[in-house]
Amino acid sequence: MCGITGWIDWKLDLTTQADTIEKMTETLALRGPDASGTWLSRHCAFGHRRLSVMDPANGAQPMVRPMKASEQHDCVIVYNGELYNAPELRQQLLSLGYRFQTSCDTEVLLQAYVEWGPACVEQLNGIFAFAIWQTDEERLFMARDRLGVKPLFYKLEDGRLFFGSEPKAILAHPEVDAEVDVEGLAELFIIGPARTPGVGVWRGFRELKPGQSMVYDRNGMRSSTYWQLKALPHEADETTTAAEIRSLLTDTVERQLLSDVPLCTLLSGGLDSSALTSLAVSYYAKTGQGNVHTYSVDYVDNDKHFQSHAFQPNSDAPWITRISNHLSTNHHSLQIDTPELIEALEAAVLARDLPGMADIDASLYLFCREIKKDATVALSGEAADEIFGGYPWFYREDALLADTFPWSLAGDLRGDLLSKELRELLQPQQYLAERYEQAIAEVPQLAGEDESRRRMRRMSYLNITRFMPTLLDRKDRMSMAVGLEVRVPYCDHRLVEYVWNIPWEIKNAGNREKGILRQALEGVLPLDVLYRKKSPYPKTHNPNYLSAVRSRLLARLDDPSCPLLPLLNVSQIRQLALSADTSSHFPWFGQLMSTPQLFAYLLQMDFWMRHYKVKLVL
């Protein structure tokens, strides 16, 4: 995994701009701590930071290879990601006469472009964001993986295109200002910490959408969608469906276990991570690679303060021990204390370049930082709930019938937190409704489906295209901020395509959340682990956390220089803070983020506006 950045300019000679592209590149040093490289031509400049995973001795970027038809012209690539079908593609290209100088997938991808041009993306299985400059046509081609695991931001302005793995690379250009307009504020206050696909929050910034590619040349910019979910009939019975899921998941995990550096799995003791760990252990045993290392995270004194509820029915700790002992993994457990969790809120903002999921981000950042001491690659169970229908809102009638995103059922309460002036400017309810209608309009329809099936297809689509990207973005930013590559096998597009079209009554086999996945994994996991009720990513239950974020927020609101003051209904937030206790539940975002996370988010926003010197353009 790596960090990429670049700059296309038709008016300026970029060979004179080495200092600028190096400055943009260095902002991504944490994503790629192992090596740095730049490439400049008259109208194109590329920068790359490398995290070495495959073929560490080779594969330096930017990488240059000649065009197939002419040795006089080259293709140049900067690439962030992993191709899990690189061996097959390499063999196919060898049969077509190509020769390789490295064993890394960067060269496979570049040669695939030389052979197939933009259509190469249809051949790829992996997680990626890349840019290729074709010198003969003076043309930039960029693409992002199908599910959007790897980020890619850009800004087009006055005939110049800037791009980067993270906004910070673009913001490092001396002529790009740290500005946020009305749309950006609406995303932060109404949609956040999620984002509308394609919206970059910073003024003029866009994000290439999942499954999209883009061409930029002197004729302008043209984007196209090379992959999207399609509604197709599912004819297989329950038994056949379970067998296919198991086959696809096993193949996916084995492909993603390939690495030339230390690899581990993240283990919560739940279905999703336990399944990946079990499949990894089986593969390691088959290939003679020894024991798998596993990692888990919890919070100091959580055992004293844990309160079970519908979203989090029991503690993870006993289940982690159960599955680790069963699989004989080398397990490592991390505990986070409240002070370091508070301190890491700012590091999480710097990783995202935006306020985010508060302590949910900060804890993951700390967790990944600890893992990085021993490993460079980790497998995570992210995305199984969105794909297989594991969240509570798949089963709650109010969420299924709500005319809004099920993780944002309190849009009116959010609006009440804003100042009268900002509320009138943003029109919160209208903005949220428009974004929801935009999402619903995209849902593929299948002829003959009844209303119940259409409703579940709609819910699945919202989760895969709107909620899952929030968690994937979190996973990428927090892990890459410490130079750790996290792979997400449940995001294999073949698996997603297949499961997307499974009728709900089969997905929900046995009237259990993710029932068909459980059935597919029978024999892979012990029955008690296999049928354990879903428990989400752990969060702190320590009342000291609420006390800390509340007191800090109240102190910020007392500071006349606080940049949030003109944006917030300060009296409303003070009242909420002063009345909050451990039983308070402001339904702010999703199943994990309530009153303490709202306070922490506002703290993050205050820090973000100060640190980035954000200028509001309203």
UniProtKB/TrEMBL annotation:
Residues the record annotates as the site (Important for beta-aspartyl-AMP intermediate formation) are: E382
Pathway given for this chain reads: Amino-acid biosynthesis; L-asparagine biosynthesis; L-asparagine from L-aspartate (L-Gln route): step 1/1
Binding-site residues for L-glutamine, renumbered to this chain: D105
**Recorded GO MF terms:** asparagine synthase (glutamine-hydrolyzing) activity; ATP binding
Keyword annotations for this protein, in alphabetical order, are:
Amino-acid biosynthesis, Asparagine biosynthesis, ATP-binding, Glutamine amidotransferase, Ligase, Nucleotide-binding
A GO biological process of this protein is: asparagine biosynthetic process
Source organism superkingdom: Bacteria
Catalytic activity from the UniProt record: L-aspartate + L-glutamine + ATP + H2O = L-asparagine + L-glutamate + AMP + diphosphate + H(+)
**Record-linked InterPro entries:** Asn_synth_AEB, Asn_synthase, ASN_synthetase/amidase, AsnB_N, GATase_2_dom, Ntn_hydrolases_N, Rossmann-like_a/b/a_fold
Q: Which GO terms describe its cellular component?
A: cytosol
Q: Tell me one Pfam family matched here.
A: GATase_7
Positions that bind ATP: L266, V297, S380, G381
Query: Which residues does the Swiss-Prot or TrEMBL record annotate as the active site?
Result: C2
Give residue ranges for domain Glutamine amidotransferase type-2. 2-219
Q: What is its EC number?
A: 6.3.5.4
Q: Which family does it belong to?
A: Belongs to the asparagine synthetase family.
From the Swiss-Prot or TrEMBL record, give the protein name.
asparagine synthase (glutamine-hydrolyzing)
Q: Upper lineage ranks?
A: Bacteria, Bacillati, Bacillota, Bacilli, Bacillales
